[in-house]
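Allow me, if you will, to draw on your knowledge of protein folds for a short while. I have a record of one protein: its chain in single-letter code and its fold written as discrete structure tokens. I remain grateful for any guidance, and I place the record below:
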Amino acid sequence: MRILRKYTNRRLYDTSRSCYVTLEDVKQLVLNGEQFQVQDSKTGNDLTRNILLQIISEQEAEGHGTLLTNQVLQQLIRFYGDSMQGMMSQYLEQSIAAFLEHQDRIREQMQTMMGAANPLTMMNRFADQNMAVWNMFAPRGEESEGADPGAASAEKNEESETKDGSDKA
């Protein structure tokens, strides 16, 4: 694991390469999948999260489109201190991991959906996928109660497509 030391002058020093690095260099480490840790030069405290948040903040400010809208940030802030905070953290990690795992398939589906289906149907499908992830957190007895949630949502999607006429020949 690479160790980066952060000095009081805000500079980052890469101990494995014996040179100073920028936030752009740290971003490249992330993109390359390299393991690293940022430590305070005096205390040895782990500052990795702070640096990663700083990189995200700079990316959001560059104006290339945002991942974290104001609404998303406000909702995340509301989870801090809430009893569901730990679950939300796990949900976000698992959702992003699943998204990355199926990224190529998702891209193909997005292109297909954007060309053929209406946006409401596309959003319903995303909501169904997110609900499937949430079902992993349901207590054992609740999972088997009632009908299959996927079947119910499929029926709902078919009904909405029929109502708006997009499924008619």
